[in-house]
Amino acid sequence: MTAAPVETGPKSSSERGALARARLLRGLLPAMSLVLVLLAIAWLNPRAISYFGFSLMLNLAIPIALATIAQMFVIAGNELDLSIGTFVGFVGCVTATWLKDAPLVGVLILLGSIGVYALLGALIHLRNLPSIVVTLGMSFVWQGLAILILPKPGGKAPDWLLSLMAVKPPFVPFPIIAALLIAAVVHFGLMRTSYGVILRGSGGNAAALSRAGWSLLKTKIVLFALAGLFGVLSGMALIGITTSADANIGNGYTLLAIAGVILGGGEFVGGRVSPIGAVIGALTLALAASPLLTFMHIPPDWQVAANGAILIIVLAARVLISRRER
Amino acid sequence: MPDAGADIIRLDGAEKRFGAVRALAGVDFHVGAGECVGLVGHNGAGKSTLMHMVAGTLVPDSGRIAVRGSIEDSYSVPRAQQLGIRCVFQELSLCPNLSVAENTRINHTALRGLGWRRKAADLITAKLDEIFPGHSISASDNASDLSIGRRQMVEVARAFTVTQDPLELVILDEPTSSLDAHTAGQLLAFVRRFVAGGKSCILISHVLGEVLGNADRIVVMRDGKIVASDAAKAFDRDRLVTTMGGAEAREKIAAEIATQKPETGPLRVRARPARQQDGNELVAHAGEIIGLAGLAGHGQTDLLLAIFAAAARAKTGIEVTTPVALVAGDRQADGIFPQWSIAQNIGIRSLARLRNGLLISPQREAELASFWQRKIGIRTPDMNNNIFSLSGGNQQKTLFARALGSDAKIVLMDDPMRGVDIGTKLEVYDLVREEAGRGRTFLWYTTETEELDNCHKIYVFKNGRIVANLGRDELTEEKIIQSSFGDAA
Q1: Which residues are within 8 A (CB) of B87 and not within 5 positions of it... i.e. 6 or more apart?
Q2: What is the pLDDT of residues A267-288, one digit of tens each?
Q3: How far does chain A reach from its first CA to its final CA, in angstroms?
Q4: Rounded to 5 degrees, what angle do the CA atoms B463, B466, B467 make?
Q5: Which A positions 270-309 lie with beta carbon below 8 A of chain B?
Q6: A19 interfacial to chain B (CB closer than 8 Å)
Q7: Of B50, B38, B300, which is closest to residue B175 (Cα–Cα)?
Q8: pLDDT at res. A10
Q9: Other CB atoms closer than 10 Å to residue B46's CB: what's the count?
């Protein structure tokens, strides 16, 4: 017995190496789909691959990426936020009115809305409510508030925000730098810090976490507050680009954000999310959404359907690769 | 010994009710320093409830908890951790989406700040090396990529890691349920070293030999009460089984199997593992109970799943002649429909028979369910209750009822008795032998050598291959271990 060979059964180190490779492959899938979309654009319209072209094509990618990150925090805790789109619209309206005219009130409103998100997290945890129902209800609240603030399109972004979003750094377009920054910061916070482990663990095995003495109420509040924070950043970035607001401006973001998280390698349950993947997913969606399809001469009427088709193809590829993991 | 100051923990008159069920009825329990206490009893005897109180995850309705002689009024998990009391729970409690190092971090608030990942990785690796030399687990492995046995190894090792809080007492609830004999031996040897170092341990196991061989004192629970507490030397297997209120001993099984040796019936399964290079193959006839043995995770489950798949769609190297049913080993993941009632969980494998036109006949479903409730003894007031209202052993019985109530002539069992109490086990063994007598074929993968007593023939697996084929009369534990480790039989 003392000379017993090291176990080399299935799932031994070599096989786990294969599993790790498959996971790496799956992790690379979002990046590959982005490269594919870029290649297609380059082939269709080589002039688009330039400093100016990227600035233009990826302009709206920043708010989408931020909204996707917001959604990712909620999904990391096995919940879903159906209100992020109208919340972004609400933040946009506040940004274009209060934040410009009475900055202090504007800041308080935005901080308060993050607080509301935190309270929603507490409510969902304490009353054990389905987040889909709560956030669906909240989506109407945010929409209503946005219409109250700005009954018809208008308002104006604060000047500092306009100039921030119009920064033209040398060599690399601003949206790309912003995307890298967002991905790096959130990756560090969620994937590398010791409390990030707890946040992801709450989605992986909540019972184990509470047995180890962690508060699930706190993790849920933190995840929702982070979602609120990034929702606020998304709304502000959006208004910085569009310069004026509209109560319906963010409505499409709810589904874009969910799709971005999933496209980026996240899963609806189990705490499996990837901030870098989510940002890449958002970029891919932003590019595939309109520039690519426009270059393909697909009429606007068909663009939404074509967008959906791209989503299905990428997700199907992901499922095929995950199946090889088994 | 009964000096209060020397006790790590002492519970006096602990009581707990869950609704109408009285899980603990006034229990006095203590663990001394440098003592390994064995805790045995059937499922539902109150062992887990008692351990949840020691670990701080449940608060007793009445009674006192004292740690090292001082009364704890607001005892909780963080408080227990501060005092150095840890628990490895029976259900696996790793986060599957996190790495081994990250899972270690969850149990240590002190692992933070710069370089915490390196510290966590070093901590768990050192402990794994200490307890399970040659474990081949890396701290960066994702928990979901590890086999169930390795996950259990990580969980056990994690409980013994130390950062800022002291470590005084570790509760091990069925720590070897997913380990093979070799790693289980490594763990138990470590527990002895740990206790010899002045620390304490509570060992809960359904494998009575482990408790008898490793505990200093054995506490027996029945119906929410402690019915015996004595030095381990004062017990032997028979006394334990009678104190627990268990059924008859295993000699009866062996005798019955020996007399029941079936004449060779028609061929049911002929299968060759995918990695098999020589001519060895598994052959099963009607009425046979075939054991699949060897170290955990060496291809037994894979072969069962391959046979299961081959029953639906022809596969090279595997011949299956009749319908097949599978009793899953990982009950929660592969066996149970959590939202469904007990009756629905039983009926799912037999829908064709339960159909009335296009719909499922509730009446026939209820008939099937109540037939098996009586036959297999599922303890519930109402088969329409949710499956989770049952204890673990009764849930497993439900899965057996699903397989045995179906038209399948071949039943594949993937280590189904993991963590099930001995009373339930003996009932199911009887049933399996009875059904085999009626011509059913059982392919039974088990990690518990005792269960192989029920088999007519045993195949030993190593590295995904069959390395030995033992008849009933050649079966000994040494022989299986020898084949499991040797290169060829």
Answers
A1: A211, B51, B52, B54, B55, B57, B159, B170, B171, B173
A2: 888 899 999 999 999 998 888 8
A3: 32
A4: 85
A5: 270-272
A6: yes
A7: B38
A8: 43
A9: 23
What tens digit of pLDDT does each residue of A144-182 get?
A: 999 999 999 999 999 999 999 988 888 899 999 999 999
pTM of the model: 0.76
| A residues 178-207 lying closer than 8 A (beta carbon) to B | 192, 194-195, 197-198, 200-201, 203-205, 207
Separation of alpha carbons A60 and B487, rounded Å = 63
Cα B182 off chain centre by = 16
| Identity of the residue in A4, A23, A212 whose CB atom sits nearest the CB atom of B106 | A212
Q: How confident is the model at residue B487 (pLDDT cuts 50, 70, 90)?
A: very low
**Sheet architecture: strand order including B267-271:** B282-285, B267-271, B318-320
CA distance A183 to A199: 17
| Nearest by CB: A11 against B57, B77, B147 | B147
Determine the pLDDT at residue A14. 66
**Chain A contact set for B132 (CB, 8 A):** none
pLDDT at B259: 64
B158 Cβ contact partners less than 8 Å away, ≥ 6 residues apart: B103, B104, B107, B124, B127
Residue B2 has pLDDT above 50, yes or no: no
The residue of chain A nearest to residue B91, with distances taken between CA atoms, is A208
Tokens 């309270």 correspond to A119
Tell me, what amino acid is at A48? A
Q: Phi and psi at residue B246, in whole multiples of 5°?
A: -80, 175
Residue A112 has pLDDT above 90, yes or no: yes
Contact B107, B170 (CB under 8 A): no
Cβ contact A211–B77 (<8 Å): yes
DSSP A51-120: HHHHHHHTTTHHHHHHHHHHHHHHHHTT---S-HHHHHHHHHHHHHTHHHH-HHHHHHHHHHHHHHHHHH
Looking up tokens 């990391």 gives: A76
